[in-house]
Each structure stands twice: as C-alpha cells, then as structure tokens.
Write a structure and sequence with these properties.
The complex is a heterodimer of chains A (about 375) and B (about 90). Chain A is α/β, with parallel strands linked by helices and about 375 residues long. Chain A has helices at about 10-25, 40-50, 75-85, 110-115, 125-135, 150-165, 180-185, 200-205, 210-215, 230-245, 265-275, 320-325, 360-365; strands spanning about 35-40, 60-70, 90-95, 120, 140-145, 170-175, 195-200, 220-225, 250, 275-280, 285-295. In chain A, the strands form three sheets. Chain A has a five-stranded parallel sheet with strand order 2-1-7-8-9, sandwiched between helices. A four-stranded parallel sheet of chain A has the order 4-3-5-6, with helices on both faces. In chain A, strands 10-11 form a two-stranded antiparallel ribbon. Chain B has one helix and five strands, in the order E-E-E-E-E-H. In chain B, strands 3-2-1-4-5 form a five-stranded antiparallel sheet, with no helix packed on it. In chain B, strand 1 (about 5-15) and strand 2 (about 20-25) form a beta hairpin. The radius of gyration of chain B is 17 Å and the shape is elongated. The chains are: A alpha/beta (about 375), B alpha+beta (about 90).
C-alpha cells in the first residue's frame, strides 16, 4: 500500500537502528539510568510491539507506553452510562468496536448486547446518523470517544444532524483532549520521563505548536511521529540527536501528514460543536481539569446526558491503581499482579487489556516474541 | 483508535454532503472530505489526492513531496550506514 510499504523497508530500518546505537554512545555522560521516552499514543504502542522495536534498541533507551488510548482511559461510570442508555426501550446505542469490551461496573456493552440491548458497532459516526435516519421511531445515541483524531468526525456529524434537524439523534460525549493530559502527566510527582514521541494523527488536527510548553516549560524534547516502523525509529533518532546536540525542541518527523498549524477546517468544526468540560475523569489517572469536551449549548437537544439513568456513583474500579501505574510509566504491565492471570484480553479487568493499543494487551499479545519491553 | 489509513480520492459522490469515493488498495468506501476542502479548492479539485482517513473522515491530505523528502533522507542515512558513518546524515529539513 502506498505511503505504508515504503515506511516498512527493512534495509532503511537497519540503517536507522545502527544510527540510533551510534547516537546512544554519544549521549552526554553522567546518566546512570536509560533515557525514558514516552510514546503518548496507543497507535505507536501497538506498532512498537508489532515490530518488536524495543528489542532492537540500545539499553540506554527505554520506551514508556503512555495514556493515549481513549479506550484505556475510559472510566467505568461512562461505560455504565452507555449501558444504561442501551438498556432503555426505544434506544439504539451505536459506538466503535473498541468501546464494546471495556468493563463497566455491571459489565461491558458487549455483555449488555448479549442480554438483549440494541447496541450496534459502527465504523464512523456518520453510520450512527444514518441509523437515526433509518429508524425514525427510535432514538439513536452515538457513544463518542477518542482524542482530537476522532473529535472532528463527531463534530461534523453533529453539525450535519443540526442542518438536517435529525431530532432522534443524540451523542453521549466522552471526547478528551491531549494537551491538558500531558500537562497533568508532567506535573505528577516522581515522573521520570526524558522525552516524548508525539501523537501523529492527533497532531494532524491540532498541529505541533501546542506542544511547545513541553520543551519550553518542562525542558523535555518532543518529536511528532508517524506510525510505521521507520517513522518511529526515525523519531527516536531525532530525539537522540537533540540530546547529543544539547537541544530541546518540538520537531516533526511526520511531515507528510502533520502541518505546523494542524487542520483548520477540523478545528473550526470542533469549536462549533464542543465546549470544554470543566473536569473529566480518566481511568487510572483520576480527574483532570478541562481535559474533555461536551456539546456546545446550541446543540443541547442532541445531548444524550439527560437520558442517562445512573446513580453517578459507580463502585471503585478494581484495577485502577495498577492501570494508573502502567499509564504513567511507574510500572511495567508484567509487574501488575493481575496481568495474564485475573486480567487477560478475553476477560479484561483493567481497560489497558482491552484495546490492541493498550499497553497490557500489546505486551500480552506479543509476550512470546523476542520483545522485552 | 488513532490509526489512519491512506487512500486515494477517486470520485465525488455527493458534493453537498462532502462525500467522496476513496480507494484503499482496491476497496472503495464513501468518505467525508469536508476537513480537506481548503478554499478556493472545491471537491472535484481533490480527485486524485491521497488522504489519511480516520473513522469515515479524511483528516488530512498526504503531502507526497514531504513523503519523498523523508524517504530521501532515510536513504541518505542508509547509504551513510553502509559507509560506516551513521552520524553523517543531517536532520529532517
């Protein structure tokens, strides 16, 4: 496939690995710990495991798997809210496949579907809008989640519903934003990160400028990267080069997709459809101010929140502490006492075991390969 | 969830709804291209463009020149590594 195969070329990968090893030898002296580099995005985590990249890297460099997997940080009470909607007569709940297996306090959406709730897996929010057109006697709720990558899709779908006055369409909004999350992560005590691989497709929307505070205020370099193995290796080499040169900047490896200013049309759609939510709960990370969005007051009639029947007090998440430690890089998935025993991809206890982009699911899936990460 | 797939815009299906037919290595699907319509470009001007598609929406046009530049830089590094001077290549322009 064009723009994919070229960025998987083994000969170029070998050259980059050789270069990375040489750069690691030239790192400024005085470090007794490996460089801790966090890949923020779950898509990167998946690629790193799929291609076994950690095993090819020098010991001086360690990859930490970050919180950028929307399914992994989806809190239990939001799953409970979605289940409560789906179990009402006259409601069809539509959402992405990834969200179906995330455990809530009363089970997952998939389990609710098995009990008879009308839950449809969709590829796009536009498919949910089409369901609303096709089922005028039902209310169709789209359970919207994701970072800025999926946010314009929900925004444009809402604007389309507004233009059509599709009154039986609603959105349960669980969109979250990357910048407040990174700031909260950087402010956590005891966090030992040295640099970031920035999320490529979130950056296609928001651009590279919003990351400037990470290098300017926190003194940590960022390289925004694509998702193929050459992209990731190239971005690691660019980060090492910054350390060797004594620079600390935001750089863009993913020039073929990411523009400095991001995508203006997408940003306009998001501003027209959403406003910041004062606070959002993250599974494993707790509450982060202004890290999520809710529907613009103008679009209130499309908001599914008023239809939710939940106590608002879900029982505590049994895996929250362990997941939080993995999400912040304080522990490895294998160090969790639930990993591979009580918590597996078939029966996930923690959300990190659900999506293929979750650190635990990735480690579990590729645990018998040579990967040591 | 953030994985995007590259595809090529083949035809415009519904200009008012911003829907285009996008080819993904032989499979075609209706995709919303609103986010890549930058005036004065209209939908028909986008035919032939490569885009990155995510949950039914083209989120960005793929810049072929930049893709070629990145690959050329990586080729330089590959040549440098063969000659045993892996640090010789410059950084991304």
């Amino acid at each position: 496939m064009k723009f994919v195969d070229e960025f998987r070329d083994p000969a170029k990968a070998q050259a980059l690995i050789k270069r990375i090893h040489a750069q690691a030898k030239n790192l400024p002296p005085g470090r007794d710990q490996p460089l801790q580099i966090m890949e923020v995005c779950g898509g990167h985590t998946h690629s790193i495991f799929r291609y076994g990249l950690q095993a090819l890297l020098p010991d001086a460099l360690e990859l930490v798997h970050g919180p950028g997997c929307p399914v992994c940080v989806l809190p239990m009470d939001r799953v409970d809210a979605a289940v409560s909607l789906a179990e009402q007569d006259g409601i069809i709940l539509a959402t992405f496949g990834d969200a179906m297996r995330v455990p809530g306090s009363g089970g997952s959406l998939l389990q609710a579907k098995a009990r008879g709730a009308d839950i449809r897996m969709v590829y796009s929010p536009l498919d949910a809008l089409q369901l609303a057109r096709d089922h005028p006697d039902h209310t169709v709720v789209f359970f919207a989640l994701g970072f800025e990558t999926t946010m314009p899709a929900t925004a444009l779908t809402l604007l389309q519903a507004e233009a059509e006055n599709q009154s039986n369409f609603r959105v349960l909004c669980q969109h979250i934003t990357i910048i407040p999350t990174l700031r909260a992560l950087l402010d956590m005590p005891g966090l030992a990160l040295d640099a970031f691989i920035g999320p490529g497709h979130v950056s296609a929307i928001i651009g590279t400028t919003p990351y400037a505070f990470i290098s300017d205020d926190y003194g940590k370099p960022v390289v925004v990267a694509g998702f193929e193995p050459l992209d990731i290796l190239h971005s690691l080499s660019m980060l090492l080069e910054q350390f060797v040169d004594g620079r600390c900047e935001v750089e863009n490896q993913y020039q073929r997709v990411v523009a400095e200013g991001g995508n203006t049309a997408a940003q306009q759609a998001m501003h027209a459809a959403f406003v910041p939510r004062p606070r959002s709960q993250w599974r494993g990370l707790g509450e982060i101010a202004e890290s999520g969005v809710m529907l613009h007051p103008r679009l209130r009639r499309f908001d599914a929140e008023p239809l939710c029947i939940t106590s608002g007090h879900s029982p505590p998440d049994p895996a929250a502490t362990y997941c939080g430690n993995v999400l912040t890089g304080r522990s490895k998935p294998q160090q969790c006492p639930l990993f591979g025993s009580a918590c597996t991809p078939e029966n996930p206890v923690g959300a990190l075991m659900v999506s293929s982009e979750g650190a635990c699911a990735a480690v579990y899936q590729y645990r018998n390969s040579d990967t040591t990460a | 969830m953030c994985v995007g797939i590259p595809g090529q815009i083949i035809a415009i299906l519904d200009e008012a709804q911003h829907l285009a037919s996008v080819d993904f290595a032989g499979t075609r699907r209706a995709i919303n291209i609103r986010c890549i319509l930058d005036p004065p470009n209209t939908a028909p001007d986008c035919i032939g463009d490569w885009v990155l598609v995510h949950v039914g929406f083209a989120i960005h046009r793929i810049n072929e020149n930049e893709a070629r530049r990145t690959l050329a830089l990586l080729e330089e590094m590959e040549a440098g590594a063969m000659e045993g001077t892996p640090l010789a290549a410059g950084k991304t322009p």
